[in-house]
Design a protein that fits this description.
The complex is a heterodimer of chains A (302) and B (228). Chain A is of the alpha+beta class and 302 residues long. Helices cover 68% and strands 8% of the residues of chain A. In chain A, helix 6 crosses helix 8 and helix 8 packs antiparallel against helix 9. In chain B, the strands form two sheets. Chain B has a six-stranded mixed beta sheet with strand order 6-7-8-3-9-10, with helices on both faces. In chain B, strands 2-1-4-5 form a four-stranded antiparallel beta sheet, covered by helices on one side.
Chain lengths: 302, 228
């Protein structure tokens, strides 16, 4: 394509976008709404993943010891546990320490413990697992081995919650693509219809260009560029909408009403995801345009 | 230049527009295609600039078959042709000069060159003062001259015209015909479909007559002799 032809495509795109401004604005708006839903799923998924990662970092296995265990046996057990390749550190909590911690946790309501013997809580080990081993099946295997150690009364670890959250993340991912798929089909038709309108509006110009022997890419090029621009602008609008919604949630809902304070930790989708959304919008717009051109400009007739 | 071998065109389901046409047109000829409405004149032109494909037969233009061409091939073929029709088909929001230059720009000519050439052509055709006018503000004859300028800007070797005077008054029709004769003098082959008997007899040298899709007659005389 020569420079003059490229200039012609650029002018054609500009004049088309201007001539059918409202059609294009409405198309980009409809596309933004559809992509906003996809973006919301992306936001939810990324935040759940971040939460999952945070939990993963805090994963520890607690083992509770038999009350009859002596100091030597505790020392031996600590040594054994420390030798586990998966274990980063093991912190011993004596019965006295456990009692103090429990009292501190209850705070002003610690008087509830009055009358209870101070050795009611068992001694325990808090075991931190190395990052490389913070995986469901591995932690389960470690717990199983610990359960079989001499003097261990019970083993507890929060894997059940991690597993549940992992399943939720997977479900959100699944829903994201199911809904996303449906929305993408909708986007395809929305942009396709807009391009079809453009084709109809420029029927005479197309015919003249065909008469004088314009190359196919020059005739189709402006529509493809229009689809690309619509896709990108629709996706950019959806990112903007998502950002506004995120700010609203972050500023308005992260108040004392939020018992966990988790909304205050809400994160916006990362830069890669923003680029992914905009790129996806551009790709969908371009494909819709190409598809529309194939459908409505099938013949090379004047 | 143009060769048709046993060319037929049948529109579905079974309407034959052209039947077994054999025709040869040499470089620089000025040929009229005549016949009543429905004779197949426009269909024949459409086959030549590949708006339609023949159902049977072969068409060669400059030794190359145009029967089976892809989109790019059709575009290349049309760059060698100038097309003029009864309907002028202008972009109404562009000036006369823009409309003419556009035809050169789309085939890749530089902008400056396209506009310079378009301006010269419009001047040649007596439209110097109308370059910046919108086509729809001009008379039928002027619009036809703009259409001819547009058809000429890419230096076609063949000019196909379908009822080029159909929308014009007699004076404008004569003007258009003189213009086409001038173009022929430059060596361009001209093929005009027309059912204007008077025009054909006054300007024709070679007249090809069609009736119900069949070639009925193909005769040559000196210009003006048909009218006697």
């Amino acid at each position: 394509m020569t420079w003059s032809q490229l200039g012609l495509v650029a002018r054609q795109v500009g004049s088309d976008l201007w001539a059918q401004l409202w059609t294009h604005v409405l198309t980009a708006g409809a596309m933004a709404m559809a992509m906003l839903v996809f973006g919301l799923f992306l936001l939810l998924q990324e935040n759940l993943q971040s939460l999952l990662k945070g939990w993963g970092d805090q994963i520890q296995v607690n083992i509770y010891l038999n009350k009859s265990l002596g100091a030597t046996e505790v020392s031996l057990l600590r040594e054994t546990i420390q030798n586990y390749p998966e274990v980063e550190r093991a912190r011993y909590i004596s019965q006295e320490q456990a009692w103090k911690d429990f009292q501190a946790a209850l705070g002003s309501q610690s008087n509830l413990l009055e009358g209870l013997p101070q050795d009611v809580l068992p001694a325990s080990f808090e075991i931190a697992v190395k990052a490389a081993y913070r995986d469901g099946p591995i932690i389960e295997a470690v717990a199983e081995r610990l359960r079989k150690e001499q003097g261990v009364a019970a083993v507890e670890y929060p894997q059940e919650w991690v597993n549940r959250l992992s399943r939720i993340v997977l479900a959100v991912q699944g829903l994201q693509w199911v809904f996303g798929g449906m929305l993408f089909v909708a986007i395809f038709f929305i942009v396709g219809s807009a391009v079809r309108l453009s084709i109809l509006a420029r029927k005479d110009a197309i015919e003249i260009m065909q008469w004088v022997g314009a190359p196919p890419e020059l005739i189709r090029g402006p529509f493809v560029v229009e689809g690309l621009i619509q896709g990108i602008s629709g996706a950019a609008l959806s990112v903007l909408g998502l950002w506004s919604l995120f700010l609203f949630l972050h500023n308005q809902l992260a108040t004392p009403m939020d018992p966990l304070g988790s909304l205050g930790q809400l994160q916006f989708i990362d830069f890669q995801s923003v680029c992914f959304m905009v790129g996806l919008g551009g790709l969908l717009g371009t494909l819709a345009s190409v598809f529309s051109l194939r459908r409505f400009m099938t013949t090379w007739k004047g | 230049m143009i060769r048709l071998f046993h060319v037929s065109k049948v529109y579905p389901p079974n309407a034959a527009a052209l039947r077994d046409i054999n025709l040869q047109i040499d470089k620089g000829e000025f040929v009229f295609l005549t016949g009543p409405s429905g004779a197949g004149k426009s269909t024949l032109l459409k086959l030549l600039f590949r708006q339609e494909e023949p159902s049977e037969g072969q068409i060669l233009i400059n030794g190359k078959s145009v029967t089976k061409l892809n989109n790019r091939g059709v575009a290349r073929l049309r760059r060698q042709m100038g097309l003029v029709f009864q309907e002028f088909k202008f972009l109404p929001y562009m000036t006369a000069l823009d409309n003419v230059a556009l035809a050169a720009l789309v085939v890749g000519a530089p902008r400056r060159e396209s506009y310079t050439k378009g301006y010269r052509l419009l001047c040649d055709l007596g439209l110097k003062e109308k370059c910046n006018a919108k086509p729809l503000a001009l008379s039928g004859g002027e619009q036809q001259r703009i259409a001819i300028a547009r058809a000429l800007i890419n230096d076609p070797i063949v000019m196909l015209a379908d009822e080029p005077t159909g929308n014009l008054d007699p004076a404008s029709a004569d003007e258009t015909m003189h213009l086409l004769l001038r173009i022929q003098e430059r060596g361009t082959t001209i093929l005009i479909a027309s059912h204007n008997h008077d025009l054909v007899q006054r300007y024709g040298t070679r007249i090809v007559s069609l009736r119900q899709g069949c070639l009925m007659d193909d005769a040559e005389r000196a210009r003006g002799e048909w009218a006697r």
